Amino acid sequence: MPSKPYLNFADVQKIATAAHAEAVANNWAVTIAICDDGGHLLSLQRLDGAAPLSSHIAPSKAKTAALGRRESKVYEDIINNGRTAFLTVPFVEGMLEGGVPVIVDGHVIGAVGVSGVKSDQDAQIAKAGIAALAQ
User: CA-to-CA distance for 68 and 28, rounded, in angstroms?
Assistant: First the structure.
């Protein structure tokens, strides 16, 4: 039977700590969500000053990246390039940049979603969190 890696509690803490540090270093008030490969929420941090709505957007971005097995920006680009019918895809709600899959040995094992600043900055925070797994 095949096996694959998965996010354990220590992994989630590493990602959350590094993402939090990136946000704080840039003085960005955001919400950081981490989910497993099925889009199930494992961690949620709403930093001081982050908009309440960001606590709904960040998990949606993470879930979209996990289930789609790609960055949520891909879906934003599809829609912005005119394929508005893509908005009808089921279970895909966070179609904005800022959701990044966690990939280990070619397997998507989860994702990080961030909301609260510019979308590319959200993605920067998510990627900083994920990079902590390699350390």
Answer: 27
- Give the C-alpha separation, 30 to 77, whole Å: 23
Sign for the pseudo-dihedral over CA of 20, 97, 68, 90: positive
Query: Computed from CA positions of residues 67, 71, 73, 79, in that sequence, does the dihedral angle turn out positive or negative?
Result: negative
Cα dist from 57 to 45, 52, 62, 92, 112, whole Å: 12, 9, 9, 12, 12
Nearest to 93 by CA among 62, 126, 121: 62
pLDDT digits (tens, 9 = 90+) for 38-86: 999 999 999 999 999 999 999 999 999 999 999 999 999 999 999 999 9
How much is the pTM?
A: 0.96
Q: Is 115 helix (H, G, I), strand (E, B) or coil?
A: strand
Question: 85: helix, coil or strand?
Answer: helix
Query: Is 33 in contact with 126 (CB distance < 8 Å)?
Result: no
